[in-house]
Structure formats: structure tokens, C-alpha cells
């Protein structure tokens, strides 16, 4: 190899550092905008952004299972409901302070996800999807049967977390910043996880299970953990949902929620950290748009919008945004 050819390969790490710096700069700008937004918006719009963050955390967990581990789940709304009800019961029946409900709700969802993940990992594809769908179907009637604990069909009404006097924030702003803190912590946790050996093992399982097993990856172990981590994040999102809404009932966690979450993730983009955020925007706003377009058949409009997005962006909105950014000419 000549000296000239050796010199030519040296700028590559510099380009990687530039891309890394641009990414962190973009994330810092996005976080600054997120902190600034609630001071410029009316309370209803602050509430909408808060719900976007709640759904983003739930979709982050689903993305870990579907996008990074290559498993399928149609029952993610059930783990969301478990976290919501765990927080509600702890606050209503045990009078536990709301900050303590978050780790407990996440732990309960983690244990349940792990317990259900062990038998579910014997299945794959449509069979696994059917089992997870069954979980979402029977959870609602199960919650209604334990009326003394869950409130039955009437649900539970809870006080929302009040902002401390030193904050100077309104209730909607305080709830927004609580949710933002949980969302940022969740994304940092998943980003660190995906950069570790565990993340590489999950990607190996997703890409080729046979090759991963030959390389020494324990399939059942990592699949089950992915299921549990996914449930944990959904439980955390459900807990924050209880803080924000102040009410839980079985009718809030139907099968449609699980299907909508999966559709939102696919639309946002599988296997991307930006996908859950874009998917959460889709889940929060598109059903309302569909309702405004046609009150008689919002589901039809919602389905057509999903088809249209998938036609324009087969890899999701995150993939479309990535392609558009790469087309922008840059100065070397």
C-alpha cells in the first residue's frame, strides 16, 4: 500500500466524530425545545405533549422487543395497564407518595413480563403474536372482576401530583416536566443498553437466531429479558399515565390500545431511537385527526392514513427523515 493510500483513510474517524457531534447537538437542541415548549403553549397543548412523552416511553419498550430483538407483541397495552393500575392502587389503597409508585410499577411490570416471556419464548411469529394478543384481551375483564381493588368498571379516580411551591409551575407544566424526566431517563437507559454487549446480542438474535446461537448467544435468556425490559418500560409509561390523567378504568386499556401502539411504532420506524417519538406523535394526534375528518368512521380514516404513510415511508417516518437528511449536501 502506498503512502498516499494510507493518508486517504485517515479522515474517516474525523467524519465519524463530526456525525457524532451533530447528533448530540441535535439532541441538545431538541431537549432545549422540549423544556421551552410548556411555557409557550396553552394547558391543553401542554397536556397533548405530555401524552406524547408517555406514549414515547411505552413505544420505546415495544421497540426494544420488536425492533431490536425481532419478537412480536400485540399485548403491549396490557403491560401499560399493569403499570397504570399498580400506581393507582398504591396511591389509592396504600396512600403511597406518587414518586415511589414509579419504580414499583416498573418492577411489577418487569416481573410479569419475565413470567409471561418464559413460556412465550417457546413460540415465534404468528403464534407468539396470538399469545400476546390473548393477554391484552383477557386483562380488561380480569380487572373488572376485582372491584374491591381495581374499582371494577367504574375505575379509580386519583389526585394528580401537585407542583411544589418552589417550582412556580402550573399543574400541567409540572406533570409535563415529570414526564419529560422519565422519558429522558428511559431513552438514556435504552441507548446505553443497545451500545452494550446486551444490545449486540439482541441484534444478533433479531438478524439470525441460528447464527447467534452458534456464536454463543443464549436465545431464551435474551428473548425473555427483552420481553421483561419491554414490559418494564410500558409499566413505567402506564404509571406516568396515571399521574397525568388521574383516572384509570379497564375501558382505557382495550385491545385497540395494543394494536395502536404497534401501528404507531411501525409508522415511526422500527429499530430507531427516533421511531418511538415519531410513533408517539402519530398515536396521539392521528386518531383525533381521523375523528375530525369523519365522525362516523374514524377507524377507516385512521387505517387509510397508516396505509398512506407506509406507502410513502416503508421503513417508517424515522427512515424517511434519515433519507432526506442524507440528501442534504454538506461541506467537507
Automatic annotation (TrEMBL):
Record bears the keyword Membrane: yes
Naturally occurring in which organism (per UniProt): Nonomuraea monospora
CDD domains: TM_PBP1_LivM_like (cd06581)
Record bears the keyword Cell inner membrane: no
Transmembrane parts of this sequence: 24-41, 47-66, 78-96, 102-118, 125-143, 174-194, 225-245, 257-283, 295-313
Name recorded for this polypeptide: Branched-chain amino acid ABC transporter permease
UniProt keyword list: Cell membrane, Membrane, Transmembrane, Transmembrane helix
Its membrane topology: Multi-pass membrane protein
Signal sequence extent: none
Intracellular or extracellular location(s): Cell membrane
Superkingdom assignment: Bacteria
Amino acid at each position: 500500500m502506498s503512502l498516499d493510500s494510507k493518508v486517504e483513510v485517515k479522515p474517516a474517524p474525523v467524519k465519524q466524530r463530526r456525525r457524532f457531534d451533530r447528533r448530540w447537538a441535535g439532541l441538545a437542541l431538541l431537549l432545549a425545545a422540549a423544556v421551552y415548549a410548556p411555557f409557550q403553549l396553552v394547558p391543553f397543548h401542554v397536556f397533548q405533549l405530555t401524552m406524547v412523552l408517555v406514549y414515547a416511553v411505552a413505544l420505546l419498550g415495544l421497540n426494544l422487543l420488536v425492533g431490536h430483538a425481532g419478537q412480536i407483541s400485540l399485548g403491549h397495552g396490557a403491560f401499560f395497564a399493569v403499570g397504570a393500575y399498580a400506581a393507582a392502587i398504591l396511591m389509592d389503597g396504600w396512600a403511597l407518595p406518587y414518586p415511589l409508585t414509579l419504580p414499583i410499577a416498573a418492577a411489577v411490570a418487569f416481573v410479569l413480563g419475565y413470567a409471561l416471556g418464559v413460556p412465550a419464548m417457546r413460540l415465534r411469529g404468528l403464534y407468539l403474536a396470538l399469545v400476546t394478543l390473548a393477554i391484552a384481551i383477557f386483562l380488561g375483564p380480569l380487572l373488572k372482576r376485582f372491584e374491591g381493588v381495581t374499582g371494577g368498571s367504574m375505575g379509580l379516580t386519583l389526585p394528580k401530583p401537585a407542583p411544589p411551591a418552589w417550582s412556580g409551575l402550573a399543574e400541567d407544566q409540572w406533570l409535563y416536566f415529570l414526564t419529560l424526566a422519565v422519558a429522558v431517563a428511559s431513552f438514556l437507559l435504552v441507548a446505553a443498553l443497545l451500545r452494550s454487549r446486551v444490545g449486540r446480542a439482541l441484534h444478533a438474535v433479531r438478524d439470525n437466531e441460528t447464527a447467534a446461537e452458534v456464536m454463543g448467544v443464549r436465545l431464551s435468556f435474551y428473548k425473555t429479558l427483552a420481553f421483561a425490559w419491554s414490559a418494564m418500560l410500558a409499566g413505567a409509561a402506564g404509571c406516568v399515565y396515571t399521574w397525568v390523567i388521574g383516572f384509570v378504568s379497564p375501558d382505557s386499556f382495550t385491545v385497540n390500545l395494543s394494536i395502536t401502539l404497534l401501528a404507531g411504532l411501525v409508522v415511526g420506524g422500527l429499530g430507531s431511537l427516533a421511531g418511538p417519538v415519531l410513533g408517539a406523535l402519530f398515536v396521539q394526534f392521528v386518531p383525533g385527526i381521523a375523528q375530525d375528518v369523519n365522525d362516523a368512521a374514524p377507524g377507516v380514516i385512521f387505517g387509510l392514513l397508516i396505509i398512506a404513510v407506509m406507502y410513502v415511508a416503508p421503513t417508517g417516518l424515522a427512515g424517511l427523515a434519515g433519507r432526506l437528511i442524507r440528501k442534504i449536501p454538506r461541506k467537507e
